[in-house]
Design a protein that fits this description.
This protein has three helices and seven strands; from the N terminus they run E-H-H-E-E-E-E-H-E-E. Helix 1 runs antiparallel to helix 2. It has two domains: about 70 residues, Helix Hairpins (Orthogonal Bundle); about 60 residues, Chitinase A, domain 3 (Roll).
């Protein structure tokens, strides 16, 4: 996973906070739990020891994942000038089945379809990228082909 990870400054800060907490608090506490459990004796039947080890392994894995994301992060900045094509960070209004829907094109880390934030890597998000106002975008969805007309780009 060494491809560019698009995100807002807020998401970057949240990941940095999570990373700091995992490194400085959670991993330290888990190492103490492991040490205390080790002092209880027989490790083969020590559930506390095994649970703490598993949790530490997960924590270390998450630390590596966050570091990789941050190392490949590119911050989405609000464009001062209005662009006439869809890009990451654009908020668009589309018409589909005679209904208007609003979507914001975001990086995979921020995607939340229920809030109208769709990933640039999703079939729908990637189909909109580079398109202009008035264009009709055909997207294959689970319910079949859908035509989305781009009504507005912010």
């Amino acid at each position: 996973m060494s491809e560019t990870q698009y995100m807002s400054q807020q998401t970057r800060e949240e990941l940095e906070t999570e990373l700091k907490e995992l490194r400085e608090i959670k991993a330290v506490n888990l190492r103490k739990r492991i040490d205390e459990a080790r002092q209880m004796g027989d490790l083969s039947e020590n559930a506390e020891y095994h649970a703490a080890r598993e949790e530490l392994a997960w924590t270390q894995s998450r630390i590596l994942e966050i570091k990789n994301i941050l190392d490949n992060a590119e911050i989405i900045t609000a464009n001062e000038k209005k662009l006439d094509f869809v890009q990451i960070g654009s908020t668009i209004v589309v018409e589909v089945n005679k209904k208007e829907k609003e979507y914001m094109i975001v990086g995979a880390q921020e995607a939340d379809p229920l809030k109208g934030k769709i990933s640039n890597e999703s079939p729908l998000g990637s189909a909109f990228l580079g398109k202009k106002k008035g264009e009709i975008v055909e997207v294959k969805t689970p319910s079949g082909l859908q035509n989305y007309k781009i009504v507005k780009i912010n």
